[in-house]
Write a structure and sequence with these properties.
D-tyrosyl-trna(Tyr) Deacylase, Chain: A, elongated, five-stranded antiparallel β-sheet, alpha/beta, 2 domains, 11 helices, 426 residues, Beta-lactamase, seven-stranded mixed β-sheet, single chain
Length: 426
């Protein structure tokens, strides 16, 4: 059983505006929105503080007293193995306990999956489009109706219903051909290497190039084995209900012709989707992000950050993923010095405030002052992110425990260690 289960709270979807422009990421059509606008034209105030401007870190030896104090606490984590690395801005690396040890990262892997999107596509919107191979004449499309998917992990059944109504409003009553799904370069894999068979559909829905409601709206054996077919059938049902009758069957193709566009439906901006994904530790959304961008952008960021490690999925569920505490700190410091610094901080769970940290660090000096990604699977607990010390210096940290007999005790050890960082004044 996976303990760090996702909270399925959909991000808002919005219609396209005239200011949006279409671009392509890895063969998937998306919408680019200039500026910092959020759905509905409302600007979202930064409720959480942005990361302060990065400055070069001083090189120094680790602090033996702080290291010893952290080790004392981590020795109570019930872990067979753990890694801890802590850097303080202007002070250097103050703690390094097994920092280079290769460990299961659990959901801290989502940091690697989402950072490239924050760096390069934070204002993009994913778009689902329905069109036809011929324009309707007297209410009839003499050809196929085509739906072009972007792999949008936030698409819900209500979005399909909206698309269907727009197709009807465009004058379509009957389609003589088929309903064709265009998948572009999106993969058809339903699972990832390293997943336990028990993960699907309870910890993560079966993956699909055309996901709907996290692919959990049905849990029958047939649907789990054929989520894409099930979702296309759901769309057909919405079209029928809207008054659009399709004569032919369902089909799929990589890039079917669609000269006539009838309806569009877009997601929230990518920064908002990432915020939901990291705060709620949404496994399905993270996997869809991997499917959309592929491994190249992720590996490029890992290389640029000198982070290292390997992974076979985007969520951290895989038992083949391996990262190090030093590698996670390197990634976080790379992000801190990049254009995505404030976006990442605002996307992370906040101690005693939001996401998977909303019940942690309450009634302590860390409440509202720790911004970090949690990670929990069986016998694994991790926390990686940022805080400030007693002198106001920016602190970057990563804790990874493996082989835990109690993940709750492991988290207690991590929390007590982070509190040491909040009090640190050397």
């Amino acid at each position: 059983m996976v303990e760090d289960q996702q909270v399925r709270r959909p991000c808002p979807a919005v219609s396209l505006t005239s200011a949006a422009a279409a671009i392509v990421i890895a063969g998937v059509t998306v919408i680019t929105q200039a500026g910092d606008a959020r759905p509905g034209g409302v600007r979202v105030a930064a409720a959480d503080p942005a990361a302060p401007t990065g400055t070069p870190r001083a090189t120094s030896s680790t602090d033996p007293d702080l290291t010893s104090a952290v080790k004392t606490r981590m020795d109570h984590a019930t872990a067979s193995s753990y890694g801890v690395v802590v850097d303080i801005e202007g002070r250097g690396r103050v703690v390094s306990l097994n920092g280079g040890r290769s460990l299961l990262p659990a959901s801290t892997e989502k940091l690697f999956t989402t950072l490239p999107l924050l760096l390069n596509h934070s204002t993009d919107r994913l778009m689902t489009v329905i069109g036809a191979t011929a324009a309707p004449r007297a209410g009839v499309v003499h050809g196929d109706l085509v739906v072009r998917t972007s792999g949008d992990p936030t698409l819900m059944a209500g979005g399909l219903a909206t698309l269907a109504r727009h197709v009807h409003a465009a004058g379509v009553r009957r389609v003589t051909g088929r309903l064709v799904l265009g998948t572009g370069t999106l993969p058809w894999t339903r699972t990832r290497d390293g997943w336990k068979s028990s993960y699907v559909p309870w910890d993560v829905g079966p993956l699909s190039p055309f996901p709907v409601h996290y692919d959990t709206w049905k849990t029958t054996n047939w649907y789990v084995g054929h989520p894409t077919a099930g979702n296309v059938a759901l769309l057909r049902g919405k079209l029928t209900k809207a008054g659009v009758h399709i004569v032919g069957g369902n089909a799929a193709a990589r890039n079917p012709a669609m000269p006539t566009v009838l309806a569009r439906y877009s997601s929230a901006v990518m920064a908002d989707i990432v915020r939901h994904t990291l705060r709620q530790s949404d496994n399905f959304a993270a996997e869809q992000m991997l499917s959309m961008q592929g491994w190249t952008p992720i590996n490029d960021v890992v290389t640029a950050a000198h982070s290292g490690g390997t992974a076979t999925d985007g969520s951290g569920l895989s038992l083949r993923d391996r990262r190090t505490a030093a590698g996670e700190v390197a990634l976080l410091e790379y992000a801190h010095s990049s254009s995505a610094a404030s976006l990442l901080v605002r996307a992370l769970p906040v101690a005693c405030r939001s996401g998977t940290l909303k019940d942690e660090f309450c009634n302590t000096v860390a409440a509202g002052a720790v911004f970090a990604k949690t990670g929990t699977i069986n016998h694994v607990k991790a926390l990686a992110g940022y805080t400030t010390d007693a002198n106001g210096r920016w602190v970057t940290f990563a804790f990874i425990t493996n082989g835990d007999t109690s993940t709750s005790r492991a988290m207690t050890a991590i929390v007590r260690s982070v509190l040491l960082l909040r009090h640190y004044a050397k």
